[in-house]
């Protein structure tokens, strides 16, 4: 079960005009809907949107806050505008892509639009990201937005700006940050260019599912357009190895890498190789953490790029 998923208890207060009943106040745990059935409905709604809406405009304004803003509009009756769905796997940008996400015993098709990939680094799925976004329902009603490029969101779910939407963790690792420079105004204003920008179309199972959130009703698919400006590397388990460096298979996601097979992925396991010695202790020499690139294998080798670093080697500590 996904550790970031949370559940809720709906408290139902029954008010009776005939107040003698012992059942006046009952607390009832409402079971969540079947994930597969709900996903089928959500996917229908999302695909209908993708087939019936087109991209009316993508703002091209380098260095301006509105750069890469997108306006998606319903195709009018008789209209010949190409639908968003017609951009599926397009060789040019904007392109619509699909990512398969296995969760809750089903495989979600996660549609996302790439307006621009970005030129910088990719966040892993538990890093911090500096991003702006606009969230809408499938009728284009805006439920939330943030315009601050220096707003930090923690994909690992920690802190006051921890992200609880699984779709964000799935989509952001497919994009890159951009570049920024001082605006020259001397007031600390930054000008951003070439950042990653896109739109994600999330079934409720990859968003808030059975929980209503603000203006989002429960069991509702949602859409986020977003811009990824910068990132911050996290060390979720504080073992001295940044989370993104615990991505052993290099796919950009650290939740599927578990060196000792104990069910706790390396990014969330303080003893990665399960030898009983904490990773942090294995990479500390004379009270100082060894730089990641210089961590030796069991023989002391620090240069072979294919060496098995000692904190991942259970026969060595
Ligand atoms: Ca770590
Ligand atoms: Ca991985
Ligand atoms: Ca483990
Ligand atoms: Ca260890």
TrEMBL record:
Catalyzed chemical reaction(s): [protein]-peptidylproline (omega=180) = [protein]-peptidylproline (omega=0)
Q: Does the keyword Isomerase apply?
A: yes
Q: Which UniProt keywords apply?
A: Isomerase, Rotamase
Query: Which residue ranges does the record annotate as region Disordered?
Result: 253-276
Classification via SUPFAM superfamilies: FKBP-like
Q: Which InterPro entries match?
A: EF_Hand_1_Ca_BS, PPIase_dom_sf, PPIase_FKBP_dom
State the Gene3D superfamilies in the record.
3.10.50.40
Q: What is its EC number?
A: 5.2.1.8
**Gene Ontology terms, MF aspect:** peptidyl-prolyl cis-trans isomerase activity
- Ranges where the PPIase FKBP-type domain occurs: 126-232
Query: Mind telling me what this protein is named?
Result: peptidylprolyl isomerase
Q: Which organism is it from?
A: Flavobacterium flevense
């Amino acid at each position: 079960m996904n550790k970031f998923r949370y559940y809720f208890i709906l408290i139902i207060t029954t008010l009776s005009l005939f107040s003698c009943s012992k059942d006046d106040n009952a607390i009832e745990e409402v079971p969540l809907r079947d994930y597969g059935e709900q996903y089928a409905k959500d996917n229908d709604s999302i695909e209908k949107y993708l087939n019936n809406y087109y991209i009316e405009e993508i703002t091209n304004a380098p260095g301006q806050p509105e750069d890469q803003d997108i306006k998606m509009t319903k195709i009018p009756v008789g209209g010949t505008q190409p639908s968003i769905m017609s951009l599926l796997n397009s060789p040019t940008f904007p392109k619509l892509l699909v990512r398969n996400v296995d969760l809750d015993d089903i495989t979600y098709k996660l549609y996302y639009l790439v307006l621009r990939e970005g030129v910088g680094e990719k966040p892993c799925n538990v890093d911090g990201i500096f991003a702006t976004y606009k969230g809408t329902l499938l009728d284009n009603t805006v439920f939330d937005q943030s315009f601050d490029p220096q707003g930090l969101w923690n994909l690992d779910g920690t802190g006051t700006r921890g992200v609880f939407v699984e779709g964000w963790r799935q989509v952001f690792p497919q994009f890159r940050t951009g570049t920024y420079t001082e605006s020259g105004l001397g007031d600390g204003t930054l000008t951003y260019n070439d950042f990653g920008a896109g739109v994600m179309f999330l079934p409720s199972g990859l968003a808030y599912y059975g929980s209503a959130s603000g203006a989002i009703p429960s069991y509702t698919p949602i859409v986020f357009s977003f811009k990824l400006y910068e990132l911050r590397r996290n060390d979720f388990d504080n073992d001295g190895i940044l989370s993104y460096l615990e991505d052993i298979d290099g796919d950009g996601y650290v939740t599927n890498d578990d060196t000792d097979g104990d069910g706790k992925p390396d990014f969330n396991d303080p003893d990665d190789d399960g030898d009983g010695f904490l990773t942090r202790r294995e990479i500390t020499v004379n009270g100082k953490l060894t730089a990641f690139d210089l961590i030796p294998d069991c023989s002391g080798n620090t240069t072979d790029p294919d060496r098995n670093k000692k904190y991942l080697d259970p026969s060595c500590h």
